[in-house]
Amino acid sequence: MRTETVEQTTEQTLEVWVDQDLCTGDGLCVQYAPEVFEFDVDGLAYVKGPDGELLLAPGSRVDVPAHLRLEVIDAAKECPGECIHVRRAADGVPVAGPGADQ
Ligand code: SF4
Predict the structure, then answer these.
(1) How many CB atoms lie under 10 A from the CB of residue 7?
(2) How close is the Cα of 1 to the center of ligand 1, in Å?
(3) Which CATH number fits domain 6-96: 3.40.50.150, 3.30.70.20, 3.90.930.60, 1.10.3470.10?
């Protein structure tokens, strides 16, 4: 049986996206990783590009900065809307959030 752990994935590039259709707007993700997540005027969370610009197109993905992996993974695990998707960039395998083993 295959098991993924945070430790096993720390050396791999991760990417993250938010499903705004399920976002409750509570702001947990913005608290955890304000460099990655931010509210738009609609009160929903979006990911930000490296230049800090909000990516408003549905399904927009960004690479997770190496120093924020654990914060982004924790946000995905605890997101009350279960709408933060963290996956391995190389093959799309879910690491945290919907579809992940943990
Ligand atoms: S933690 Fe989840 S539900 Fe809460 S604001 Fe962020 S994406 Fe939305």
Answers:
(1) 7
(2) 31
(3) 3.30.70.20
